[in-house]
Amino acid sequence: MFDLPLPIHPTAYARGVPPHFPSGEADPSHPFALTLSRRAPADLMSGCAAPLVLSRFATLAEAMQGAIDHAEGMAPDTAPELLAILDRDERLVLAGAASDHAVAWCHPVTSAAEARSVVTEASQLRAQAGRAAAWGEPDLAVRLRHRADLLDARLVDPLWRAFAARALQVAA
Hey, which of 1, 35, 60, 129 would disulfide with 141, CB 3.0 to 4.6 Å? Predict the structure, then answer.
């Protein structure tokens, strides 16, 4: 999944306008929130790096469809965006990269050992990104950080791992 070439472009803001969701789906009592990662340097430095809630949904299937609708509303040349579905307690349920009118969902880890391995690999990628930035290779650094973010997206909360994996099987 991570071998797919994705054009990564740094951005200081979320590009494009999220599609209009029916007003009923904005109900704050709905348990699933579709969020957009805000990892731009300006957001990180200002302390506003919390994910932007695009909409809320009553079911995971509706939230997944909302993510697909968001991807379909993106311009073709827009950089991939990391979308995440969180539950009402802000636990990660599912995440994926939206681009090119589709969402590439990240399959959740299946065990604590796999989660540790993913964390280790993501940390190594971020260290490589830091070295690449120091060597004057900002494009490589951005790509490495994006790959690390995609690995982190697999770190679904243990409560949701089996359910998310099953949802992806059903969706396929």
Answer: 129
